[in-house]
Design goal:
Layout (H helix, E strand, L loop, with lengths): L2 H20 L8 H23 L7 H24 L7 H33 L7 H31 L6 H15 L1 H10 L6 H22 L7 H29 L14
Length: 272
């Protein structure tokens, strides 16, 4: 795919669902469309990450990072499929256990993948742009923003747990995973800037944009806690989910085109 295709795919795909929800289906039951939108988003994410992973050889550092990100969405997709199959007649307690299991595994995989990406510049011996104080300012700033945004939902979850609603443990795992992953936006951004001026920047730029979209997803998701209209929040939340996942697909395709398709390179870049 050409760069222009990778750039326009995320806003067009996500925007189409947004317009559909705000116009044709405004005020209507959006359940079936919502399931399709979420499943499609997860498939975009999985496909992009797997495509990127298999441009590297087994054991390569970035192959592991892409595979962990891919597995995170596989876990969420399995959760969605399992919990939406109402004909299985699962007991409520077992549903909560499955929900917690898949969410915990998915978030753990995301965290491992993002930590690997955040350390890639160091493994590769790259020099991040700007002075040290500037780098730390970006890191502290993004971490503070992530803490404020994610912390809003975190306070709500902790209150539920303290009230004895222990089914919210899965949400706590999600909060912690989001906090760590979103705090690592800065290393991704700085790595992308270190590679600016060439095609090597593209996968990192798209991946950084994907994580920023997830940041806005969390803003939209927690907006009702601040009094925002929940129906509008649900629509914008799914828009940012779809945008984040399609941007991850663009990142994977950018990695694939960078390394010449499915042909394994002799010099795959960062190795582990």
């Amino acid at each position: 795919m050409r760069l222009i295709h990778l750039l326009i795919l995320p806003p067009i795909w996500s925007g189409a669902f947004l317009v559909l929800n705000l116009t044709v289906l405004a005020g209507a039951e959006r359940g079936p469309l919502n399931y399709i939108e979420i499943a499609a988003a997860r498939i975009w994410w999985i496909s992009g990450c797997l495509i990127a992973a298999y441009t590297f050889r087994p054991g390569d550092y970035l192959r592991k990072a892409w595979l962990f990100l891919s597995f995170s969405s596989v876990s969420y997709l399995l959760r969605d499929i399992t919990l939406k199959l109402s004909f299985l007649g699962l007991a409520a307690l077992f549903e909560h256990i499955l929900d917690g299991f898949f969410i915990t595994i998915g978030n753990a995989s995301s965290v491992v993948g993002m930590v690997l990406f955040a350390r890639a510049w160091k493994i590769a011996g790259l020099n991040l742009p700007g002075p040290k104080w500037g780098q730390w300012a970006v890191i502290v700033g993004t971490s503070l923003i992530a803490t404020i945004i994610v912390g809003t939902g975190g306070v709500h979850v902790v209150r539920r747990l303290l009230a004895g609603e222990f089914t919210w443990f899965a949400s706590l795992a999600s909060i912690l995973g989001d906090l760590i992953c979103l705090s690592l936006i800065a290393p991704l951004l700085l790595t992308a800037l270190a590679l600016r001026g060439g095609r090597f920047m593209r996968p990192w730029g798209f991946l950084t944009a994907s994580m920023i979209a997830w940041l806005f997803y969390d803003v939209s998701y927690t907006a009702p806690l601040w009094g925002a209209d929940k129906s509008i929040s649900n629509i914008t939340t799914e828009f940012f989910r779809s945008l984040a996942c399609t941007l991850a697909f663009s990142a994977g395709m950018a990695q694939w085109t960078l390394l010449g398709g499915l042909k394994k390179p002799k010099q795959p870049g960062v190795q582990g």
